[in-house]
Specification:
By secondary structure, the chain is mostly helical. It has ten helices and two strands, in the order αααααβαααβαα. It folds into two domains: 3-114 and 180-224, Periplasmic binding protein-like II (D-Maltodextrin-Binding Protein, domain 2, 3-Layer(aba) Sandwich); 125-170, no CATH class. The protein has helices at 3-18, 20-27, 32-35, 38-54, 62-70, 125-139, 141-151, 167-177, 191-205, 211-224; strands at residues 110-112, 181-183. The chain has a two-stranded parallel ribbon with strand order 1-2. The chain is globular and about 60 Å long.
Amino acid sequence: MQGWQTALLLYGMISGIGGAEFYNQVFEARDEEALNSDTLKNIFAEYAIARDLAWGGNLSGWNMATNRIIEGAAAAQVMGDWMQGEFAPAGKTAGMDYGCHIGLGCEPVVATGGDAIYFPVNDDESVTEAQRAVAQVILSAEAQVVFNAAEGSLPVRGDIDLASVHECTQAGLATLKAGNTIRTIDLVMSSGSRGQVEDLTAEFFGSDLSPEDAHARFVQIVQSDM
């Protein structure tokens, strides 16, 4: 399993089991008490159970794991909302063939983040006009509805009608509207430290590294990022 996926699972467990406030204590404040708390130690113990449940999967791509669910060969996957884009082409319907759950026990919370599109500055007004036209299409209500309905993601605009999207996206919208958000890990940890966490979690899932040792190394990584 790729490191970014094993790390994503850990981040999801920290926010889902520990809660948004605990997530912020760990990653925003780097609070020593939170980092060495029984809560985080217990999360790593649960993380080891997740490793046991996934053992033998031998999958690398996230979409391969999603396909296991579609085929009925796997029970669940912890992943971002983009995985929903795999179900529709397979003829699967949210609420009938599969379901979604935000968080892992506590109040639902969404890590806000996403991809960005940049247009280079240039001196050709015709190119600039073309860039503006593309941006208008991307941000149009029509395109936002079609794109987010197909991918299962949440829109960047809050003034459009998404009543027609399926229940998984509706759950995400409700969570977003309630203000239950945390900053994505890209915004609270340096790329170097994120890479170390990814390496650690990939090693953890591919070995018999103990949750106690993994927790201790995780704490060192987070504290060194201060």
